[in-house]
Amino acid sequence: MDLVKVYIIIPVHNRKAITLKCLDNLQSLSILEKYKIIVVDDGSQDGTATAISSLYPNITILTGDGNLWWTGAIKLGMEYAYRHGADYFIWLNDDTFPLSGTMESLINICQSSSRMIVSAQCYTTSDLTVPSYGAFKKVNGNFVFYYTNTNEIIVSDALSGNLVCLPRSVIEDIGYPLADQFPQYGDIPYTYKAKKWGYNLQTYGAYKAICMPDTQQSWLLGEDSIWSIWQSFSSPKSYFYFKFRWYWCMNFYGWFGVFIFIRPYWQLLRVGIIRWLLPRSFLIYLKTNLKT
After folding, report:
1. Which is it for the CA torsion 158, 160, 166, 171, positive or negative?
2. Among 256, 195, 128, 95, which residue's Cα sits nearest to residue 187?
3. Could you tell me where the DSSP H helices lie in 97-186?
């Protein structure tokens, strides 16, 4: 194990407290002593890089101008690690906190086969009852989230990028993640491509991490205006970012993807009409009473 070079790549942006909590967790697990750590700071303005340099001087910090997003940051980290002879890469989001033994176990599994990519099962809280991120299977053309029980292994079609271990050979086979096409959500397209190249994608229920999932505000009942929701689609952070969604639909659905592409925007139009016709208070009342 000592001869194996493992690089953990952590993309960060403007959430210093969460990033430092992530590194503190890795330190408590003795991970900082075992593996190389790369933090890709994409133009943070809150002093993230300075704080890391002060507290963890052995960590490598790569910087961006704020336009890398998740996939660009991961790509930059993988390029650096590859040049420095990495045998394995670990993607780790700074809001993901692996439990004791998880990181080492994922690396050991990757070492057991030359074409293995593995992820941990993530949960929303430390009571490990509600799953958040992990495996995806392609069902009827759609990627559906699956979660594992404690002793279960799921053979996946794609993986969430929160905590994933990949071998060096994946770069030699399929290159780096496509940051131009999928700036923020390049994990599923990249791991799915690896699957098609013959890599075995697995999620292990025995190896766990804590990560609270992102929440999406209801278009119908939320307080954001329809116009502000529409404007948010111009940001790569949105699941409905126009450029990302177009490439996604064309890659996974072919020309039928044109209809998939327009569906959420058509749905937003319908929601806008309903909100224009009916007061929000009435919609909330209606939903509450329908549930009852």
Report:
1. positive
2. 195
3. 102-111, 169-174
pLDDT of residue 3 exceeding 80, the answer is: no
Q: Where are the domains of the chain?
A: 6-210, 226-291
Q: How confident is the model at residue 40 (pLDDT cuts 50, 70, 90)?
A: very high
The Cα 105–Cα 282 span in angstroms is 52
Burial 127-163 (b: 16+ CB within 10 A, else e): eeeebbbbbbeeeeeebeebbbeeeeebebbbbbbbb
* Pick from 187, 78, 219: nearest CA to 122: 187
Mean predicted lDDT score pLDDT of the chain: 91
Picking from 148, 178, 6, 189, the residue whose alpha carbon sits closest to that of residue 91 is 6
Rounded CA-CA distance 277/263 in Å is 21
Tell me whether strands 60-64 and 36-42 are parallel, antiparallel or unpaired: parallel
Q: How far apart are CA 199 and CA 94, in angstroms?
A: 26
C-beta separation of 207 from 105 below 8 A: yes
Reply yes or no on whether the pLDDT at 284 is more than 80. no
Residue 278: both structure tokens together: 């009916």
pTM for the predicted model, two decimal places: 0.91
In the beta sheet, which residues pair with residue 144?
137
Q: Which CATH superfamily is domain 6-210 in?
A: Spore Coat Polysaccharide Biosynthesis Protein SpsA; Chain A (3.90.550.10)
Neighbouring C-alpha atoms within 13 Å toward the C-beta of 284: 7
CA nearest to 270, candidates 261, 260, 258, 278 = 278
pLDDT at 210 over 80: yes
